[in-house]
Amino acid sequence: MYVNLEHISKRFDGFQAVREVSFGIRRGRLAALLGPSGSGKTTILRMIAGLEDPDSGDIRIDGLRVNDIEPSRRGIGFVFQNYALFRYMTVFDNIAFGLTIKKEKPGRIRERVGELLQLIGMSGLEKRYPAQLSGGQKQRVAFARALAPNPRLLLLDEPFAAIDAKVRRELRAWLREMIRSLGLTSIFVTHDQDEAIEVADEIIVTNQGRVEQMGSSLELYQSPATPFVVEFIGASTPVPEISALKGFDGTPPGAGGAVRPEFVSVYAPDEQVQYAHTEEAIVRSIAFRGDSLELGLTLKGLPLTAAYSLARAPLAVGDAVRLLIRHLYLFDGGQVRLLQNSAYGNGPSENFYSI
Amino acid sequence: MRYRSRRGIPGFRLSLGLTVSFLSLMVLLPMLSIVILSSGLGPRGFWEAVSDPRVLAGYRVSFLCSLIAASLNSVFGLILAWVLVRYRFPGRRFIDGLIELPFALPTAVTGIALATLYSDKGWFGKPLAALGLRAAYSETGIILALTFITIPFVVRAVQPVLEQLDRSYEEAGRMLGASPPQIFRRVIFPEITPALLTGFGLSFARALGEYGSVVFIAGNMPFRTEIAPLLIMIKLEQFNYMEATAVALVMLAASFLIMFGINCIQSRASSFVRG
Amino acid sequence: MHNKNNLWLPRLLIALSFAFVLLMLAAPLSVVLAEAFSSGWELYLKAVTDHYALRAAQLTVIATLSSVLLNVAFGLTAAWAVTRFSFRGKGLLTTLIDIPFAVSPVIAGLVFILLFGRLSPLHSFLDAYNLRIVFAVPGIVLVTIFVTLPFVAREIIPVLEARGTDEEQAAALMGAGFFRIFRRITFPHIRWALLYSLILCAARAMGEFGAVSVVSGHLRGKTNTLPLHVEILYSEYQFTAAFAVSSVLAAAAIAILVARNIVELAARKEKKSNVR
What we know:
The complex is a heterotrimer of chains A (355), B (275) and C (276).
Chain A: E1 3-12, E2 15-25, E3 30-34, H1 41-49, E4 56-61, E5 64-65, E6 76-79, H2 91-101, H3 106-119, H4 135-147, E7 153-157, H5 165-182, E8 185-190, H6 193-199, E9 202-207, E10 210-215, H7 217-222, H8 227-232, E11 237-239, E12 257-259, E13 264-267, E14 279-288, E15 292-299, E16 302-309, E17 320-325, E18 327-332, E19 335-340, E20 349-350
Parallel strand pairs in A: 3-8, 3-9, 6-7, 7-8
Antiparallel strand pairs in A: 1-2, 1-4, 4-5, 9-10, 11-12, 12-18, 13-17, 14-15, 14-17, 15-16, 18-19, 19-20
Helix pairs in contact in A: 2-3, 2-4, 3-4
Chain B: E1 3-4, H1 12-39, H2 42-50, H3 53-86, H4 92-98, H5 101-104, H6 107-118, H7 125-130, H8 139-149, H9 151-164, H10 167-175, H11 180-209, H12 212-218, H13 228-237, H14 241-273
Chain C: H1 8-36, H2 40-48, H3 51-84, E1 86-87, H4 90-102, H5 105-116, H6 122-128, H7 137-148, H8 150-163, H9 166-173, H10 178-207, H11 210-216, H12 226-235, H13 239-275
Helix pairs in contact in C: 1-13, 2-13, 3-7, 3-8, 3-10, 3-12, 5-7, 5-11, 7-10, 7-11, 8-10, 9-10, 10-13, 12-13
């Protein structure tokens, strides 16, 4: 592993921000620290950078323990949430800042800054001040400034938070391609699952100072390890009492779980249903989702969401439909188990992590 | 006057009418009277009044002492603002609360207190006199008084800017390898410069016009420790209104120039901050 | 932090700050009290309860109260006009409001002598009706109002500017009248700023010396304010009496500082609880 965190903990007066966090990231990978606000993700990033010191645990970069190394000597480029571009310096001076601190020769600085301006597609704008740039341009300059001293690891704190939604998509793609083509190991912090899924090779889901799960977006979606990941990644509806549902009546009473929209099959009132264990539900809302319809349903007072193909018999709000819950996630302590409806076999079978 | 009312909010005519009439009576008319009266002096009379050696010496004393006082306050004001914003220590509220004393204490009280403090028999004047230094009744005394009354300007201009300065600027500098002195000089200082200059300008303008606190400690020796506002006062006591007005007009021009400069600094600064 | 051991710089700066504040601010304040009581309580009480001192205090209170009241009225009206509407010449108007701060107090006094004194075209008119403004109480009140004019307006304008006009507009569309809008919507946002600026205004009005000195004529018991009384006592070498009267003004100054700090704390607290 290129970047390694081992049992990192951090406490701010009276508040445990990070608890016993360990993970590793391979060289050249682009990882996302994903979690709600207050989950410790930014603190983890800042500890890797050296802007905060962990109370315990080790941080290694390329095998070297960096805990006691000055932030600027860790070989890290950092892109701040609001970019922190120096307002009274031009674009050129901003990008050149790290190089002038290192006392590089003026010719070498000009060359490197020119290179970076070309890379970010902003040649000719080097005399502008940050206030004269758009949000996207500011982010590119912040990116170039972080890259200027040739870091071996790039850290980005909520890199898209300050940009309006329209430009954000474009910039995500740009940043992902840029980082991939440079082959630079990178970690970025985000609270937006779409952003993490679209940009990152690997996602580290954090919650209440802990790492809940680490994996590719597909792994997180298909085999969530904890109830939190089920709720945080993708859509799901909580089910407080699973044993009340037909086909899952063998589960221990009181156990809760969650259902994803694609786990539910909906049958129009006059449709033939081959399975037992279907339940009656009422259509409460119908929303068009491009390739399908999203149905809002209530089943014995329990609100559920289901996808419904456009090719099937049309439904109206208020219709009584039959539905079959094919699978669901059972929350068992901190664990998640995928259950299959007993209509598919005898009794509730337990198929772990396969749909 | 053409206007465009923001739809619906009442009270436009009334509030604007009252404001304009009151300002005309209280500010515009008085200020015009000074211009009209000094024009009665004629260009030659005006020039003679303001180029009188004693008046020129008064301008020199006022400008130099104000400049030194404003500079002293810029240094200490910056330190005070920094300490109040960045450090937590016992006595911090005491310092913070006392900063505005010069605005609250009547200038005459300030004047006699400083004169007593720095006279040859005073708490500070005695040890200074033993060292052969004379504070009261000299330029030093004027500078001390002007420094005292302008202490709050720089502190209160810089303090909020430092408070609101995003820490990530410093962290960005730190990540890029800058040492604490480099971070201060290259990252923080440019951010607070507009506020510092504004505070300096306000101190300077206020010091130029100050009268009450200075006259007690200055000694008021013609050509040496006579400030320009005192000259206006002296001419008024001699009922020499024309010359007093001429001297005042030059002071007014200087004040407006300083105010104009402050406005330029602030609009330039806001062009960097916006967006 | 990595520079844990580098505490010398903060310590040095804090020490410098304490030294500066003690020498420059606390020492002059202490000397006032020390000198005031240097000849004992009796002399102190005598100086403070002296007939002329009481008359001077009376005039100071009158001038301070008038300037505070006028400042509220003018400041709120001007701030309403400048921030709630857009019109041509707004820049000029705000510059006019600022002028008294840019003018030396001595010049402020001079201006009123020129306006109402012997040289003024108004003089014969005022004389005919036996109205005395300069070298009389009205002049003192007028210059005090002049030098304190910008206090409230300058404090309130930025606050209202930052607030925008949305809330007032919404209320106006719902049919609320001027007084209701002002009392229910605008006033709650500006009350701390108003109080704060009034405290500073009172401090300046109470202590004004240069401007008042020019228009007063220094008639004991008639046109003397407390600061002028201090000057007279001092120039007559009645130092103890001068400092005794000064100590009253200094006490008022301290009360003003305390009030200012309380208002600031209260405003901060409210701001914090509003954010939540």
